Amino acid sequence: MSLNPVRPWRNIYRRKSRQIQVGNVPVGGDAPISVQTMTNTDTRDVAATVAQVQAAADVGADIVRVSVPDEASARALKEIVRESPVPIVADIHFHYKRGIEAAEAGAACLRINPGNIGSPDRVREVIAAARDHGCSIRIGVNAGSLERHLLEKYGEPCPDAMIESGLEHIRILQDNDFHEFKISVKASDVFMAAAAYQGLAEATDAPIHLGITEAGGLTSGTIKSAIGLGNLLWMGIGDTVRVSLSADPVEEVKVGYEILKSLGLRHRGVNIISCPSCARQGFDVIKTVEALEQRLEHIKTPMSLSIIGCVVNGPGEALMTDVGFTGGGAGAGMVYLAGAQSHKMSNDQMIDHIVEQVEKRAAEIEAGEAAPKAAE
Ligand code: SF4
């Protein structure tokens, strides 16, 4: 992200990390912070899994993770990788053979903890398979599954135990001269996760995968993730994010993007600025925003749209957005284009008209004829 010399209070100074590749997606360094999700289909069902990967990619997922619990899943992974539009991370627990099979199947990254897969020979075999097939590795420390010796040492899961676990796994990879790795230290408790990530960020220059694990359902999990991940991202920590929700993976991607958009770290699609509405509204703000969110899902160009119920805040918000609509009197409101007042439009034709204006503006921005207004 470039620094803003005019509004320095908007700047986020990103931690300097090494860059690795997850397939064709760079992670770390100055690469854009990538958004990930994970499928929840049966991996052996190739068609269902590919459909879910595609749906996540359609809303902007850069990387998708797929569980590989058995040999049949590893076989299916090969086809999934072939049909996926984005790099696939294979999620492996304990079974070193699944790690080797997943690397052979074309996974772009293995999520595996080298300390948990057995003897040094087995670890070496998995690392060799990753190296031979251009696979990176994600070390995934989780507060809920810390190694027994660390639980005995610290008494309970805590940030220090998580950091120590992460560093132990890192050492195993480094001892095997393997450096294409990133790392996460997830916990469902935001305080524990934030403290662990801060400690980890100081202890290593590896790219960091952020996540609040088992965050909850769509509303509660979104809030928890926005607080936990938002706080870390604001501090400059995090190179790739996954929001974990008990919800459709598509929702995870949307929430991940919204968190990054709120911090101005990544932009995709239309950022809608809308008021909560009240008795002053000149049209039904809530219904209009719901309809526009759906009608504008296909726009990928980063741009902004303000939908404001009345003149109390409408003109001011419209100044900073690409397209704006402010409610007025007598069943019509004012349309603003590129921050300037443009023309009146009746409420009953307004949704179609705004969709048209947004599409037109997106085309202008894409053609390089206009710069987007930054309203994030
Ligand atoms: S902008 Fe107008 S309609 Fe919207 S909440 Fe404020 S006063 Fe109410």
Automatic annotation (TrEMBL):
Catalytic EC class: oxidoreductase
One GO MF term attached to the UniProt entry: iron ion binding
Family per record: Belongs to the IspG family.
UniProt: [4Fe-4S] cluster binding residues: 275, 278, 310, 317
Matching Pfam families: GcpE, GcpE_C
Enzyme Commission number: 1.17.7.3
Function: Converts 2C-methyl-D-erythritol 2,4-cyclodiphosphate (ME-2,4cPP) into 1-hydroxy-2-methyl-2-(E)-butenyl 4-diphosphate.
Keyword Iron-sulfur: yes
Xref: SUPFAM superfamilies: Enolase C-terminal domain-like, Nitrite and sulphite reductase 4Fe-4S domain-like
Gene from which this protein is expressed: ispG
Keyword Iron-sulfur: yes
Cofactor note: Binds 1 [4Fe-4S] cluster.
Catalytic activity: (2E)-4-hydroxy-3-methylbut-2-enyl diphosphate + oxidized [flavodoxin] + H2O + 2 H(+) = 2-C-methyl-D-erythritol 2,4-cyclic diphosphate + reduced [flavodoxin]
Cofactor(s) the record lists: [4Fe-4S] cluster
InterPro entries, per the entry: Dihydropteroate_synth-like_sf (IPR011005), Enolase-like_C_sf (IPR036849), IspG_bac (IPR016425), IspG_bac-typ (IPR004588), IspG_C (IPR058579), IspG_TIM (IPR058578), NO2/SO3_Rdtase_4Fe4S_sf (IPR045854)
GO biological process: isopentenyl diphosphate biosynthetic process, methylerythritol 4-phosphate pathway; terpenoid biosynthetic process
Residues in IspG TIM-barrel domain copies: 17-257
Species per Swiss-Prot/TrEMBL record: Sediminimonas qiaohouensis
Protein name as it appears in the record: 4-hydroxy-3-methylbut-2-en-1-yl diphosphate synthase (flavodoxin)
Lineage top rank: taxon: Bacteria
Domain IspG C-terminal: 271-360
